[in-house]
Every structure is written in structure tokens, then in C-alpha cells.
Amino acid sequence: MKPNLITVAGIWLCVLASARAVEPANALARKFEFTSAAPAPRVLTVPLPEGNYAVTVSFGDASGATTNTVKAEARRLMLENVTTAPGKSVTRRFAVNIRKPDYPGGHVKLKTRETTDETATWDEKLSLEFLGQPRGVQSVEIAPAPDVTTIFIAGDSTVCDQPRAPWNSWGQMLPRFFGDRVAVANHAQSGESIKSSLGAHRFDKIFSSLRPGDYLFVQFGHNDQKDKSTNALALYKSNLKKIVATTRAKGATPVLVTSMERKAGVKGNTLGNYPDTVRAVAGEDGVALIDLNAMSVKLYQALGPKLDRAFQDGTHHNNYGSYELARCVAGGIRQARLPGLAENLAGDANAFDPSKPDDADSFNIPEGSLRDETKPDGN
């Protein structure tokens, strides 16, 4: 039996799986089968080494209809509201990246919040959370997926995998918009700037993992803007260019993302010259650009009196806001026709017009088990 992680009243407990573990031929592959008498746990966690894994989940229940949403690691949205009719079943497949803080010659300087078990990010375990009817999960298969394309993400609290509701970021919503040929490795963290991420060796870790054909999405600005040094903006630009060059030297593709506006950005620029600097680097160095800053303004203006429905505070977003921003990023990927990504967007990841957002009143994606109102680092 493999250990599982469940939550009771906000406390994480390690228990044995109520499933029949089937040992596949591959030493790193796992298969779990569940029954009505022994349903799937709320959270399944499996110790595995760093890498990408293909996860295949079969849903269905002979006795009734089911609806399930699946999240991985620190609340990355993988599958959204998968439904089955009574007696029917459906199978869905997606790719998940897991990691450790070590890399050849070094170690990422983790923040306290990153070292706790509940964040389920740096622990060399694959964690899956099933948000729906437990009886609706029939089986879970996990297998190494070394050939999928990986999107690495570097950024701040508006991008990172927020481990606790109600906070959420577009980086943890993005996996939902891809099929099983793309894995998202979100290395962003709250409170980070380009300079601090370089100092914490977050980029060294990413560069140690980049392979030809992979992507590195970079979005910074909110915290960089706080640097009052006279050369802060020039250093920001120089660091961006160095990151672009190193990414290309690894055979991977850099993608620059302008930071979305804060809530007050609906009326005017809140990020100074930082978005324009990103645009300038993209133009000067021929780098793909996703102008999330411009798209966010259109989104906020379109929300009108419902703008608060997208935010948790003046900077950070909730489930709905981050989902809409992730749709903007997915639309930017499609528009830029990024090879290996655009053709692997999920079938229902249609072109998105930020001036026509999804209805906030009908939005319904479970937040997850962990909740903490404490504000993330950064603003």
C-alpha cells in the first residue's frame, strides 16, 4: 500500500491508501484501483523522483452521476469539472512536474512556507487532490513522461502556486489549458523579484533542468518596482537579457510576460516603466511576448462593477481572477503560435477575448482543502 495524504479540519494526515495497488512493469509507474467499498482518498500522494509524469484518471460510478475536479501539488488545476452519467465512465490524462530543491553544484534557498509539507512542491512526491465525489474516481495511473514539453515559470506572488485558498495565481491555473504533452513547472514564489530569484538560485535550478524544446516564461515587476536604487530599472533590463541568453544557450525558448496590473490599474498604470521595459527587451532581442499587462486592463475594464470578484486584495487574485488571467496567457500562446505549445492546448481552450470575460456569477471551481487568509509576500 502507498501512503496517502488527507486533510481533516485543516490538518494533513498520512494514512494508507484504501485501494488495490497494481504494480506495472515500469519501476517508477504506479496504478491504484478504487471501488465503491474502498473509494479514492481526498488526496493521493506518491513518493517519486524529480521529473515529469503522465497521470491517467478514470472517472465513473455505476450508481450515479459524478463531477470531479483534480488539482496537483500546490493546487495546480489539472482537470476542471469532469462529469460522468450514471453507469458511464470517462478517462482523462495530464502531465505533472515534480521537483526537489537540489541541483548539480547547489541548492535553492527556500522560504519557510516552501519547506512545510502542506505546500507539496519540493518534496519529491506527486500529490493529487480529488475535489468531487470520491466514488467517482475509479483508477489512477502514474508513469514517467520524459518526452513531454516543459513550461518553466519564474515570477512572483501573482504567478506562483499559492498553496492555500483564497489566494490563487495564473501559473497554477495554466496546466488546465493543456493536454498531456505539456507539463508546467512553476518556480515562481511570493515576494520575489528577478534580483532576489537570482540570489536564491531559482534560475540556477531552472537552467539545470531546461532541455532543448522547453520553454521559460518570465514575469516580474511588482516587487522589482520597489527597488529604489538609481539603476534598478537598468539592472532589471540587464537581468532579463541575461536570462533570455542563458535560456537560448540551453536550447530552450524564452517567453517574456508583462505583469498584470494591480486592481487600481483599471484606471491607470500601477507598474511604472517595468511593462515597457519587458516590451523593449522582447523587441530588441526578438523574444516572444505575452502582453498580459495590456490584456489585464481590458479584462478589468470589462468586469466593471464586478472587478472585486477577481481580486482577493489590491494585487492578488482569487480562483476566478487567476483563471481569467490564465485564459489570457493561453490565448497569448495561441496567438504567438509557440511550437510545441499552441498545438497542445486543450481542445476547449478556445481563443479568449479579455474584453469578454467568463461570467463571474456562474464560475465554479473548488478552491481546495487548505485555507489561510494570511496575505502572501509581495504587493
Q: How would you describe this protein?
A:
Mean pLDDT is 91; it is low at 1-18. Strands 3-4-13-6-9 form a 5-stranded antiparallel β-sheet, with no helix packed on it. Strands 15-14-16-17-18 form a 5-stranded parallel β-sheet, sandwiched between helices. The chain has 7 helices and 18 strands. It is of the alpha+beta class and 379 residues long. The protein has 2 domains: 1-147, Galactose-binding domain-like (Jelly Rolls, Sandwich), CATH 2.60.120.260; 149-379, Rossmann fold (3-Layer(aba) Sandwich), CATH 3.40.50. α4 packs parallel to α5 (274-285) and α6 packs across α7. It has helices at residues 170-173, 194-199, 202-209, 232-249, 274-285, 292-303, 319-336; strands spanning 3-8, 11-16, 20-22, 30-33, 43-47, 51-60, 66-72, 76-84, 89-98, 102-103, 106-107, 125-132, 137-144, 149-155, 182-186, 215-219, 253-257, 288-290. β14 (149-155), α1 and β15 (182-186) form a beta-alpha-beta unit.
Question: What would the keywords be for this entry?
Answer:
alpha+beta; disordered N terminus; Rossmann fold; 5-stranded antiparallel sheet; globular; 5-stranded parallel sheet; 18 strands; 2 domains; 379 residues; Jelly Rolls; single chain; 28% strand
Kindly identify the CATH topology of the largest domain.
Rossmann fold
How much of the sequence is in beta strands? 25-35%
Strand order of the largest sheet: 3-4-13-6-9
Structural class: alpha+beta
Count every helix, treating DSSP H or I runs of 4 or more residues as helices: 7
Order of helices and strands: EEEEEEEEEEEEEEHEHHEHEHEHH
Regarding quaternary structure, what we see is: single chain
Number of strands: 18
Task: Give the overall form.
Answer: globular
Average residue pLDDT: 91
CATH first level of the largest domain = Alpha Beta
CATH superfamily of the largest domain: SGNH hydrolase
Radius of gyration: 20 Å
Provide the number of structural domains: 2
Instruction: Give the termini separation.
Output: 44 Å
Low-pLDDT ranges = 1-18
Largest sheet: 5 strands, antiparallel
CATH architecture identity of the largest domain: 3-Layer(aba) Sandwich
